[in-house]
Structure prediction request, 427 residues.
Amino acid sequence: MPEMEEAGSCSSITSELSDITLFGKYEIGMLLGCGAFAKVYHARNVRTGQSVAIKAVSKQKVVKGGFMEQVKREIAIMRRLRHPNIVKLIEVLATKAKVYFVMEFAKGGELFTRIARGRFSEDLSRRYFQQLISTVRFCHSRGVFHRDLKPENLLLDENWNLKVTDFGLSAVKEQIRPDGLLHTLCGTPAYVAPEILAKKGYDGAKVDVWSCGIILYVLHAGYLPFNDPNLMVMYHRIYKGEFRFPKWTSPDLRRFICRLLDPNPETRITVDEIMNDPWFKKGYKEIKFHGEDFEYKEETQGPGTKCLNAFDIISFSSGFDLSGLFDAAELSVRRERFISGEKPERIIERIEEEIRGMENVKVKKRRENAILLEGHNCDFVLAVDILQLTENLVVVEVGRREINVEPSGDIWKDKLWPKLSDLVNRN
Prediction:
């Protein structure tokens, strides 16, 4: 069976792909877009003529980039969710080199493209926001928190109805720690909630509400409420909840958005409160559907099919396994942030002080607000960037990659972090 070729550019349509039939079942068409480790194509089911979107994920890039858990989680979560406003995952196929997500095709494209042409009326903004909240409410009821809601992840079908997609950064209730909160730092900077920046743990539902508030603002205004070329200036505004409304915003909508973009998660409006808000309820009709219409039904494979259907090996439970899709990863990439009240230069000095007694770690580069550490055998890289959040607070972002950490252990977690944990602002 021919393997799908890598395209040279996201904007090009390679002639080689037009003749490929994936597993004898899907005829591959134009390239719709691409990301760091995946490309999305339009395709047609040869038997039924149905249009689908196929996301081709490179196993090698996923493993080397440390995204294996993210891809496995996305498959499992999309299998759990069946809703008219969520892009349906039809099946997952795999070859030696790639994993293929076969998904419902959203003919209307990205909502982002429509917003780029001009802002929406208040009524149209409300209509899409109602569909978005209905979907988010459903996800939360199934124990799923999206954590990366933005117009680029909202598609439109042929009837211009919303379709939520890209659950790669989503979390499930099983990931909630004993303190009742999530702790993984993720999301897109302009849409990230202030409590995520604070790295004290956060409620996944409240983080999604914040992102929905950003989306509603963008639909209505045509631009972002928090936006600045200087990332730290933007983070400061997010942290303080400082934004302005355009002059055409109605008083009711101003009030409603202020409740959505409340920087205090404790007083921020909840999904249930949104559903009962007068601005939201205007013209709202709750979507009625039969659950069985959206339950996953196993795809049957013909006797001559030479592929692995990932759904044959997934059973969504606390121990679901996708090991058959990937080889064991030798590289792991991890990123985390914390808030500190220390000055950037002092944090860098502390790191330098602590590694002086370590034989296998050296400073490769150093600046006033950043430091890059490397293992003498090139088996360890740690990058620390410090960004000023407020006059008295900084965000410290730590990115690290380690190869074969055993038996020496995790350099950051086991050796450096215990000595630096006093730098964290716990107020």
Summary: The chain has three domains: 1-105, 109-281, 332-423. The chain is about 30% helix and 20% strand. Confidence is low (pLDDT under 50) at residues 1-19, 290-332, 404-408.
